[in-house]
C-alpha cells in the first residue's frame, strides 16, 4: 500500500522530525497534538483551553486526510496531571458522539514545549 503524508496549515506545523499524519490505505495515524494555535504557534493558556485546541487541530488534520473526527477509532492521551481527567472527559463529550472511540490516558512527567495535554489519534476512513 502507498503511504501518503498529510499536512494542513489549519493545524500546527510539525516541530520535529515527524509528519502531522500519515495515511496508509484507509487508516490515518495522526501524530500527537499539543494545544498550539496553528497561526501563532503559541500554547493556549490552561488545561481546558489546550485540550480544546488539541481537538481543533485533530479535526483539521482529519479533514485534510479526507475524514472527520467521527472517523477516529482510537485516542492516546498524555496528561501532565491526572487531576485534569474530569475536564478531559468534558472536552471529549463536547467534541464526540456515541459510540465513542477507544481511548487510553496516562500521566507523564512532562510534554514538549511545556504542554499539559497531548493527544494522538488513529482514524479509519471507509
TrEMBL record:
InterPro entries: RidA (IPR006056), RidA_CS (IPR019897), RutC-like_sf (IPR035959), YjgF/YER057c/UK114 (IPR006175). It holds the Pfam family Ribonuc_L-PSP. SUPFAM superfamilies: YjgF-like (SSF55298). CDD domains: YjgF_YER057c_UK114_family. GO terms for cellular component: cytosol. GO terms for molecular function: deaminase activity. Belongs to the RutC family. This is Reactive intermediate/imine deaminase.
